[in-house]
Every structure is written in C-alpha cells, then in structure tokens.
Specification:
CATH superfamily of chain B: SoxY domain
Number of strands of chain A: 7
Mean pLDDT of chain B: 84
Distance between the termini of chain B: 70 Å
CATH topology of chain A: Immunoglobulin-like
Low-confidence stretches of chain A: none
Strand content of chain A: over 45%
Strand order of the largest sheet of chain A: 4-3-6-7
Radius of gyration of chain B: 21 Å
CATH superfamily of chain A: Immunoglobulins
CATH class of chain B: Mainly Beta
Largest sheet of chain A: 4 strands, antiparallel
Mean pLDDT of chain A: 96
CATH architecture of chain B: Sandwich
Largest interface: A-B, 31 and 35 residues
Structural class of chain B: alpha+beta
CATH architecture of chain A: Sandwich
Number of helices of chain A: 0
Order of helices and strands of chain B: HHEEEEEEEEE
Distance between the termini of chain A: 24 Å
Radius of gyration of chain A: 15 Å
Oligomer: heterodimer
Helix content of chain B: 25-40%
CATH class of chain A: Mainly Beta
Shape of chain B: globular
Low-confidence stretches of chain B: 20-38
Largest sheet of chain B: 6 strands, mixed
C-alpha cells in the first residue's frame, strides 16, 4: 500500500527544510455526517521526525488539525542523501511510517 | 505519655503532609514535565475547553504576550476547515511551540517539541469552528511567550 506520508526534505546551507503531507481524515469528533450522526474522533496524535535516531521534530496533535495535515519546519544539519524517518500514530492505534532522502 | 503520644501523632501528621505534598507535586509537576519531554500525549491539555486551561495543563503556567513571537494567520478565512497558520520567533532556546484556537470546542490544536538545532518556525493548517483568536505559545528558556490574532471565519470548520 502506498504510504500515507509524503515528505520533501531539502538541504541548503546546512539547514534542512522539511515539508510533509499526510493522508488522514483528522475527524475531531464534533462534526455530524449527512444523517446527523456524530462522526467519531479519528485523528493523528503523535508525529515524529528522526534523523540518525535523534528526534528533530515532534508534534502532539488534536482534532483541530485540518484533514490531510500539512506541516513545515526546518532544522540545522542533515546532508543530502541522509534519511529522515517520519512516523505517526492516531487515537485508534493506527500508525504509519516512511523514510525520505534529504535532497 | 501524653508528650510521646503528641509527638507520635505530630510525626504522623507530618508524614501525611509530606505524602500529600508529593502527590500534589506529582499532579502539578509531572504534567508539564511530560509535555516538555513530549514522550506522552498530553491527554488533559487536549480536553481543556478554553485556552488558559489548556496552556496550564500543558505548561503549568501562563504566558506573557511578546512581540518577538510572530504569528502569521489570515484576516479572513473563507473555509474554517483549512486555515493556514504559521509562527516564527526571534527568541532563543525555544523548546516548544503550541497553537490554540479560543473558540474551538477543544482549544489546543497542536503542540510541537523543538529540539536543540531545530528552527523555531512552523507552518501548519488548522480548523476553526468560528471567528476566534488564534493563540500561539512559545516556550523559550523555561519561560512562556504568546501572540494572538483574530481570524474571521465565514464558514466554520467544525460542523457548526
């Protein structure tokens, strides 16, 4: 199955800029469907970016993050060709992870 | 006898007080420590209905407004389901950044850990139930700083 995570990491002048787009419904638990029934909460709670086993960025998310979340940040270090590990887990216990080569 | 008894009971009371103090520390001291360490999901902070309670649950203290925190959010959001919001700061030793929406059913939207070497600048997309203040809290050098901006929402993003 294709990964739910799409990452673009680019290194320039010793700074790596990371953009990630994740496919996830991010249901907050406050929205009703067309029948007027509450759509149960289903959202990513933790998202982590690691380089060489070291966390470079970590997110705790609630249901207030938009559907198919987007995140952008940057960190010092990381060379072209280094592998960035990205992983998430949601409130239902599902998870996914991927690695992206820094370009 | 009476003196002994008195001393004995006083010791008991003191021990009791010590235990209570420890439990108290556990409740109030542990939550911010865990949030800072970011190993554990801050369940309580994500249950808080208003921003002040969420910030307290997350950090154990209140922030002060700072013009060194730059919050970039639209004046008007046509679609409350997707509001692009970003923050950057000139503060040093930033360890964490959190986004909150005052009028959302759950005020806390996201809390980010910023390890040493990671830039204190983040862009993400958040949901807004209605017109509200967006608040960003930056933890730097153990202190809390905040910035807020009102975003007008024409169509809510939380089924409202």
């Amino acid at each position: 199955m294709a990964s739910t995570i799409r990452v673009r990491a680019t290194s320039k002048d010793d700074i790596t800029e990371v953009q990630a787009l994740i496919q996830h419904p991010m249901d907050s638990g406050f929205v009703k469907d067309s029948k007027g029934e509450i759509i149960p909460p289903h959202f990513i709670q933790k998202l982590t970016f690691e380089l060489d086993g070291k966390t470079v960025f970590a997110a705790d998310w609630g249901g207030g993050i938009s559907k198919d979340p987007y995140i952008k940040f940057s960190f010092k270090g990381g060379k072209k060709g280094d592998e960035l590990k990205v992983s998430w887990s949601d409130n239902k216990g599902a998870s996914d992870q991927t690695t992206a080569k820094i370009g | 006898m009476t003196t002994n008894n008195h001393q004995f009971s006083r010791r008991l009371i003191l021990q009791g007080a010590g235990a209570v103090a420890l439990i108290g520390l556990g409740n109030f001291g542990l939550a911010p420590a865990l949030a800072a360490a970011n190993d554990k999901y801050p369940e309580e902070a994500f249950k808080a209905k208003n921003e002040a309670d969420a910030i307290k649950a997350l950090y154990g203290k209140a922030p002060e407004a700072s013009d060194k925190v730059k919050l970039d959010a639209p004046e008007i959001a046509e679609n409350g389901a997707v509001v692009p919001v970003s923050v950057s700061t000139s503060l040093s030793d930033v360890t964490s950044i959190s986004f909150l929406v005052a009028e959302n059913p759950v005020a806390l939207v996201a809390s980010y850990k910023i390890p040493a070497g990671t830039m204190p600048a983040i862009a993400n997309r958040i949901k807004m139930a209605k017109t509200s203040n967006v608040i960003v809290v930056v933890e730097a050098g153990g202190k809390l700083y905040s910035a807020a901006k009102e975003v007008k929402v024409t169509v809510g993003g939380c089924g409202g």
